[in-house]
Write a structure and sequence with these properties.
- The complex is a heterodimer of chains A (310) and B (234).
- Chain A contains eleven helices and eight strands.
- By secondary structure, chain A is α/β, with parallel strands linked by helices.
- In chain A, helix 8 (226-235) runs antiparallel to helix 9 (243-251) and helix 10 (255-271) packs across helix 11 (290-296).
- Chain B is of the alpha/beta class and 234 residues long.
- Chain B has ten helices and nine strands.
- The chains are: A alpha/beta (310), B alpha/beta (234).
- The A-B interface holds A 111, 113, 118-122 and B 201-205, 207-210.
Chain lengths: 310, 234
């Protein structure tokens, strides 16, 4: 099968992939987005544009994806179920494919209570697994979920997320298996600090042979300070941050440099974990550090399997 | 009251697959009024299951019991002896009742014999209409006593959409337009000014802010000491 995207090309060729995240701005000015895209171009195989992350209103993921394409950078359009029903999800997927956005990441989305529109009526018509089922059916069968035949099927490379640190832990791998069965081509994980637990997760992934069915990109998030580490540990649900990481950040003379160093070490470690096919770098509000991290981790230059079309 | 509707018999039978000692639990409250799960319906359903068992040679043991209110733990606790030796409870109470049974008998497999539909009222005998969306932020004072959340197909807050014709909703010629009803009511009340007032985006937090909605009546909640005293006396 012809690759739908550069990311698919890299993963299918067996090379260690790199994706990174770009947070769209809280406003209508796309310049900051363009700047990030230009700065990071060539340092990742594709870039995730978050979809109103933590339910805070931002420039939309699909528009941000288009801005990236205009800059010659391949996007991964995130599409949360919180704000769209199945009609909007299918429509946006067709629109994305039509305009050259080929990587779509299916996710449930943070509840609006965490954002700046707490009074909103959420949608959640579909969950992320159902979203995968619907989009795969459009791509592979050329049909809408309602059964109508599309005049042309969208070209999509479908992603999903998984959190190896959520509870119940015993259900994380079965849930991953459900996502794979539903149509996920690649998986990006929550950021990893607790390597022991992640390795246990990957043992289970390999036991079920899931690493041969899906490409797993392990998530990393560079820490800026001990405070940020503590925040992750205590305030972000489903996160596991071991005390030694917090102590290491606390004792560092230059916490920011330490955070980058720690992130690079984590990537070096992840490269050795069997079944991990790449990393996903979430440098939240610290996008400018991505090139440094990628270089330091020995992952630069990136292979170019396909130039984004626009 | 809560409106429910009995599930088709073949679906009920399918849910009971792998079980044989069945307790059918009916409720004398809402589901009895809407003829879905009261004493009579529990009896009929239990008898249908016995017949099915006889015809198919399944050797099911089916008993039935009907409680006053299955949504209240006090009543449900009273069926200890009925539940003894059973391996499945077929609840004809609403979804609330079914869950209360599950909470009190956590090891027991509880299956729903009804679909819980809505909060509504009988229009006439045998016809029940949803009246309340349970949104937690009542606006009946702005809408002439007719709920736009439950009775408008789009839950619109500012008047009928373009699909309203001849008092009917675009989704179905038998469905009255909720906003047509609101308009008529406001006209009669001489409060059409309310029709012209733009209602800003609704606060859905009390409705969909996440997780089960919990209501606490502080004055009614017992202190630990009161609970102790109450617990000591039967």
């Amino acid at each position: 099968m012809k690759a739908a995207s550069n990311l698919q090309g890299v993963l299918d060729s067996g090379q260690f992939a790199v994706t990174a995240e770009i947070g769209p701005p809280k406003g209508a000015n796309p310049e900051v987005l363009r700047k990030h895209a230009r700065n990071m171009k060539g340092y990742a195989d594709a870039f995730n544009l978050t979809d109103n992350q933590t339910a805070v209103v931002r420039l939309s993921s699909w528009a941000a994806s288009l801005v990236c394409l205009q800059e010659g950078v391949e996007p991964v359009m995130q599409m949360a179920c919180r704000d769209r029903n199945r009609i909007a999800i299918q429509s946006d997927a067709l629109g994305a494919s039509a305009l050259g956005v080929r990587n779509v990441l299916c996710l449930t989305g943070d509840h609006q209570i965490f954002g700046n529109q707490k009074e909103a009526k959420n949608v959640y018509d579909l969950d992320s697994i159902q979203e995968l089922m619907v989009l795969r059916s459009m791509r592979d069968e050329g049909k809408t979920w309602g059964g109508d035949t599309l005049d042309s099927a969208p070209q999509l490379y479908l992603g999903a997320v998984e959190n190896p640190f959520g509870d119940p832990f015993e259900f994380r791998v079965p849930r991953l298996a459900k996502k794979v069965a539903a149509g996920a081509d690649f998986i990006q994980t929550q950021s990893i600090y607790d390597m022991e637990r992640f390795e246990t997760f990957m043992d289970q992934v390999r036991e079920r042979g899931l690493d041969r069915k899906v490409h797993i990109l392990a998530g990393v998030l560079p820490l800026k300070s001990a405070k940020a580490a503590l925040y992750m540990k205590n305030k972000v649900s489903g996160m596991s941050v071991p005390d030694e990481i917090i102590d290491r950040m606390k004792n560092a003379a230059d916490p920011k440099a330490e955070g980058i160093k720690l992130c690079v070490e984590t990537i070096e470690h992840l490269k050795q974990v069997k079944g991990v096919h790449g990393v996903h770098i979430m440098a939240v509000a610290w996008e400018e550090k991505v090139p440094e991290i990628v270089r330091e981790a020995g992952l630069h230059p990136r292979p170019v399997m396909m130039e984004p079309e626009h | 009251m809560i409106i429910a509707e009995q599930k088709p018999l073949n679906e009920v039978i399918e849910m009971l697959e792998g079980h044989s000692r069945v307790l059918v639990v009916g409720c004398r409250s809402c589901v009895a009024v809407c003829l879905a799960g009261g004493e009579k319906e529990a009896g009929i359903l239990a008898e249908s299951l016995r017949l099915h068992s006889d015809l198919k040679g399944k050797e099911w043991e089916v008993e039935e019991v009907t409680l006053e209110r299955v949504c209240e733990k006090e009543w449900v606790r009273g069926m200890d002896s009925d539940i003894e030796g059973k391996d499945v409870v077929l609840s004809l109470a609403c979804g609330v009742g079914a869950q209360v049974i599950h909470e009190l008998y956590p090891g027991m497999f509880v299956v729903p014999g009804v679909n819980t539909i809505s909060m509504g009222a009988p229009e006439e005998q045998g016809i029940y209409l949803e009246k309340c969306g349970g949104c937690g932020d009542c606006v009946l004072h702005l809408t002439g006593g007719v709920c736009p959340v439950a009775r408008c197909s789009k839950s619109l807050m500012n008047g009928p959409c373009g699909g309203s014709q001849n008092g009917k909703c675009e989704i179905d010629p038998d469905t009255p337009c909720g906003w047509d009803q609101i308009y008529r009511s406001l006209k009669e009340l001489n409060r059409l000014d309310l029709m012209e007032t733009a209602i800003p985006p609704k606060n859905w937090r009390p409705s969909r802010s996440g997780g089960p909605r919990k209501t606490v009546r502080k004055e009614a909640v017992q202190t630990d000491e009161e609970k102790k005293i109450r617990g000591a006396s039967p």
